[in-house]
Amino acid sequence: MGIWVDADACPKVIREILFRAAERVGISLTLVANQPVPTPPSRHIRSIRVSAGFDVADNEIARRIAPGELAVTADIPLAAAVIAKGAQALNPRGELYTDANIGERLRMRDLMDTLRSTGIDTGGPPPLGPRDRQAFANALDTWLARRSKP
């Protein structure tokens, strides 16, 4: 049982929350990125560096994740892939992607992508704020508590 992190785009403050949680509960935490990602020395935390390329890190996570594990990602197609394998996905703002909401998120992502391709400026997400960090920490704690129950 472990947590997989799409580390190329994961904010440092979210990685730090994950590092503390991995140490606190002794869960395996794996960061996957196509660039070096600093990690603290720990027997619970490791980093996998993949080759550069479109979706290489995402594909590695989707290939390795097991049912019941958690992926931390803002990438909606990756979230859909891990859900399809029986795992769960949590974004850095604390939103848990589920079977019930992933289809809608994929449709919205595709719509925004289509709008951007026609030249419409759709903007981007606001910067990660204190409420987002707290929402992430709370959602992570909830997931960790559920996994430790028989």
Keywords:
150 residues, alpha/beta, six-stranded mixed β-sheet, 6 strands
Q: Determine the fraction of residues in helical runs and give it as a percent range.
A: 40-55%
Output the number of helix runs. Answer: 5
Radius of gyration: 15 Å
What proportion strand? 15-25%
Spans of at least 5 consecutive residues with low confidence: none
How do the SSEs run, as a string of H and E?
A: EHEEHEHEEHH
Q: What structural class do helix, strand and pairing data support?
A: alpha/beta
Ends apart, CA distance between termini? 14 Å
- Count of extended strands: 6
Question: What is the mean pLDDT?
Answer: 90
Strand order of the largest sheet: 3-2-1-4-5-6
Shape annotation:
globular
Biggest beta sheet attributes: 6 strands, mixed
Describe the model.
With 150 residues, the protein is of the alpha/beta class. It has helices at residues 12-25, 56-64, 76-84, 102-117, 130-148, and strands at residues 2-6, 28-33, 45-49, 70-72, 88-90, 96-97. Helix 3 runs antiparallel to helix 4. The longest helix has 19 residues, at 130-148.
Outline the secondary-structure elements.
Blueprint: E1 2-6, H1 12-25, E2 28-33, E3 45-49, H2 56-64, E4 70-72, H3 76-84, E5 88-90, E6 96-97, H4 102-117, H5 130-148
Helix pairs in contact: 1-5, 3-4
